[in-house]
Design a protein that fits this description.
Keywords: FAD, Flavoprotein, Membrane, Oxidoreductase, Transmembrane, Transmembrane helix. This is NADH dehydrogenase-like protein. Belongs to the NADH dehydrogenase family. GO terms for molecular function: NAD(P)H dehydrogenase (quinone) activity. This protein has 9 helices and 25 strands. By secondary structure, the protein is α/β, with parallel strands linked by helices. It folds into 2 domains: 193 residues, FAD/NAD(P)-binding domain, CATH 3.50.50.60; 132 residues, FAD/NAD(P)-binding domain, CATH 3.50.50. The strands form 8 sheets. The protein has a 5-stranded parallel beta sheet with strand order 5-2-1-9-21. Strands 11-18-12-13-14 form a 5-stranded parallel beta sheet. The chain binds flavin-adenine dinucleotide (FAD). The site of flavin-adenine dinucleotide has 33 residues, from α1, β2 and α7.
């Protein structure tokens, strides 16, 4: 590394000889940002020991969050040690509570302060839980791996208890993508659990919109409606939830649905760490990033995944999704190191958009384009969904540095 190749813009940091890149979050954006940064260091032949990349994450795992609606969660949690240690990326389990963009420091709930030369914010999003009577006490969700395990244990406890119809009844609130996937999977999950004695499952999907999957477009809606019917899922649309209790759900229509389980799937918002940056946020709480994933108006800070809103093409911005979070992460990782060394940055543009929605035993629906035109359905689309959920979005699990760095290249995958 000659003088021109030394890291640029480094803040004075006393006697600390290391240049530090911090990544907050180890989800689809954070993991790939960290690996993308490690890959770029190697590509620039930066001597080991001169730039430190460390992930700060509140869990020591890379969770495959998109699979939280599934019955078997065993393949959904990957230890960070398996995917970061071989790449030489540090990781610290810490709940980040503050970011000071002026002093370039990150603070944690444990009282630690970490200096950064470059920061990648990738702390994702959280399910929005409104202040609704009973939701916090009695509601379940599939937002995180831990939430999904809590739901799983609750259902198992019900199946082990008295065999009542309410015990085998689940109300899913929110007929967006997560709610539809959760509802479609639920009847077969309940049938597998409530076997002794057999209790007929009941699953009801509730939404305040007039249609289920209102964001999925007119082409996919009939496919979704048919799948819900085929799976035996009832729907209640154009109603809202008034109250949740241990006995079930009261709707704005006056109807009471007796159910021992309510799964809340309505609404997502960017992680609140975005509020620590001195910039405005969009209606989902996301910070604006430029084509290179730099937070607009905040020097030395990049953002990727659900915390960031980036242009995907000249007309569309990123959607809170794994589909966009992974490439945003890889590009942020490449660019954060390129920026440190004064090298050209790579602009991210993704010229395609797809949706692949799991419909449980009824298969799946696969749409292409921003207007979500159905291109396949049923068993054919299910194969695509399973390929995505079990292979395409996983990091290599070989513990091999070369495999991990190769997978972190700032390339765009082809459509699934
Ligand atoms: C059930 C379900 C199904 C989904 N299905 C799809 C789908 O089919 N296709 C699709 O594209 N998207 C889907 N999504 C959305 C997708 O999961 C998210 O958009 C994606 O996970 C965003 O990636 P991310 O890295 O930005 O955030 P996340 O994956 O949420 O990762 C955030 C990371 O930040 C960490 N973190 C958070 N706060 C802190 C803190 N204060 N301090 C330290 N660490 C912190 C978390 O532990 C985590 O490691 C689904 C989501 C759910 C819940």
């Amino acid at each position: 590394m000659d003088a021109a190749d030394r890291p640029q813009g480094r803040a004075a940091s006393g006697s600390d000889p290391l240049t530090r890149v911090l990544v907050i979050g180890a989800g689809f954006a954070g993991l790939w940002a960290a690996l993308g940064a490690a890959r770029r260091l190697e590509e620039l032949c930066v001597p080991p020991g001169s730039v430190d990349i460390t992930v700060l994450s509140d869990k020591p795992f890379h969770d495959i969050r998109v699979r939280n609606y599934e019955a078997d969660l065993s393949p959904c949690r990957i230890p960070l040690a398996d995917v970061l240690d071989p790449a030489g990326v540090g990781h610290i389990t810490a709940d980040v509570t503050g970011i000071n963009a002026h002093t370039r420091e990150v603070m944690t709930s444990g009282g630690q302060t970490y200096h950064y030369d470059r920061l990648v914010l990738a702390s994702g999003s959280r399910l929005v839980k409104p202040d609704l009577p009973g939701l916090r006490e009695f509601g379940f969700d599939v937002d995180t791996y831990d939430d999904a395990i809590r739901l799983q244990l609750h259902l198992q406890q019900l199946a082990d208890g008295p065999a009542t119809s309410a015990a085998a009844a689940v109300v899913v609130v929110g007929a967006g993508l997560t709610g539809i996937e959760t509802a479609c999977e639920m009847p077969s999950r309940l049938r597998a659990l409530f076997v002794r004695p057999a209790v007929a499952p009941r699953v009801v999907l509730v939404d305040h919109n007039r249609f289920v999957g209102s964001d999925m477009g007119v082409s996919a809606r009939p496919v979704i409606e048919q799948a819900l019917a085929d799976n035996g899922v009832e729907t209640r649309t154009a109603v809202s939830v008034a109250e949740i209790s241990a006995a079930g759900v009261s709707l704005s229509s006056g109807e009471h649905l007796a159910a021992a389980t309510v799964v809340w799937c309505a609404g997502m918002r960017a992680n609140s760490l975005t509020e620590q940056l001195p910039v405005t946020r969009d209606r989902l709480g996301r910070v604006a990033v430029d084509d290179y994933l730099r937070v607009v108006g905040v020097p030395a800070v990049f953002a990727a995944g659900d915390v960031a809103v980036a242009k995907m093409d000249d007309e569309h911005v990123s959607v809170m999704s794994c589909q966009h979070g992974r490439p945003m992460g890889r590009y942020a990782g490449y660019n954060v190191i390129s920026d440190l060394f004064g090298k050209p940055l790579l602009a991210l543009r993704i010229p395609w958009y797809v949706t692949v929605l799991d419909l449980g035993p009824a298969g799946a629906v696969y749409t292409e384009g921003w207007d979500r035109t159905v291109v396949s359905r049923g068993a054919e689309a299910k194969v695509t969904k399973q390929t995505i959920n079990t292979r395409r979005i996983y990091p290599p699990l070989t513990r091999d540095r070369a495999d991990l760095l190769a997978a972190a290249a700032p390339d765009l995958q082809a459509r699934p």
